[in-house]
Amino acid sequence: MVLYVDGVAYPVRNEKETGDPVFTARLLKKTTDTVTLEFVAENVGPADSPYTVYIRPSAIAGRKDSPIEIFVEGGERGRTLAIGLTLTTLGTEGFFCDREAGG
Asked: At CA 92, angle to CA 37 and CA 84, rounded to 5?
């Protein structure tokens, strides 16, 4: 994922470099049919006015899709923000099917 601030790209990932975003995670919601996690990335964007990016994926019983809510807080007012989704190609991909569990 990439946060664009006034057209400048800021990757939302941690490469263990000084100034990289700091991530935390927690279980946000758990019911009989839904589990929602929250990943928080702090210090994303310009060093003088960083943003916090919230990522909330959910797994919902009976659904094949997984809704993901993303929102951004902080930073300097008046700037144009956009979120870019990126995909990484894996060198090797594996697929697991547990027939006893029905999947």
From this structure: 45
